[in-house]
Design goal:
A 5-stranded antiparallel β-sheet has the order 4-3-2-1-5, covered by helices on one side. The radius of gyration is 10 Å and the shape is globular. Helices cover 20% and strands 44% of the residues. The protein has 54 residues and is an alpha+beta fold. The model has no long low-confidence stretch (mean pLDDT 88). The chain contains 1 helix and 5 strands.
């Protein structure tokens, strides 16, 4: 089972991260060690930073 997290950046773009039950997170076909790692990767990609919306 996966949990879906939705983040939004300052420009209004949304990012969907799937957190898997083994603790890893998937965003854009890349698997990260944890949700925090995926969130950091998105923050680097999104200039203004991101905010959790769901």
């Amino acid at each position: 089972m996966t949990t879906t997290h939705v983040f939004q950046d300052a420009l209004g773009y949304t990012f969907v991260v799937k957190e898997r039950k083994d603790g890893t997170a998937k965003w854009r076909k890349t698997i990260y060690k944890s949700l925090a790692h995926a969130r950091r990767a998105i923050n680097r990609w999104a200039e203004g930073g991101i905010e959790k919306i769901k």
